[in-house]
Amino acid sequence: MRNPGRLQRQALTAAERSIQALGRGDPVSARMAISTALEKDQTGIYVGVADAVDVAAGMLERDEPITEGVWGHLADAVGPGPLQALVEAVRH
């Protein structure tokens, strides 16, 4: 039997790993982690985050730095809370 609470916690952890990977400049790991987050997400809250991660990862794949605007988009997508604090921590 699936445990929705446990799956949602796993989704959160995967979203954190995705943001950390972007901060390290690792688009492959960022995409893999956000894919896991979407798979585990029981509430649909990471769909917008996935879109923002996709844009940021695309920039890294083109050897471009992630712009402040894209970091801001990611921060807005995760909303207030610990993920937003993580975005702010890894972007600088």
Descriptors for this entry?
single chain; about 90 residues; mainly alpha
What does this structure look like?
- The chain has about 90 residues and is mostly helical.
- It has one domain (about 5-85).
- The chain contains five helices and no strands.
- It has helices spanning about 5-25, 25-40, 45-60, 70-80, 80-90.
- Helix 1 packs antiparallel against helix 2 (about 25-40), helix 1 (about 5-25) runs parallel beside helix 5 and helix 3 (about 45-60) runs antiparallel to helix 4.
- The radius of gyration is 12 Å and the shape is globular.
- The mean pLDDT is about 95.
In short:
This protein has 92 residues and is mainly α. The chain contains five helices and no strands.
Shape: globular
Q: Structural class per helix/strand content?
A: mainly alpha
| Uncertain ranges | none
Q: What proportion of the residues form beta strands (DSSP E)?
A: under 5%
Work out the number of β strands: 0
- Please tell me the overall pLDDT: 95
Number of helices: 5
Total of domains: 1
How does the major sheet shape up?
A: none
Order of helices and strands: HHHHH
The percent of residues in helical segments reads over 70%
How far apart the termini lie comes to 42 Å
Radius of gyration: 12 Å
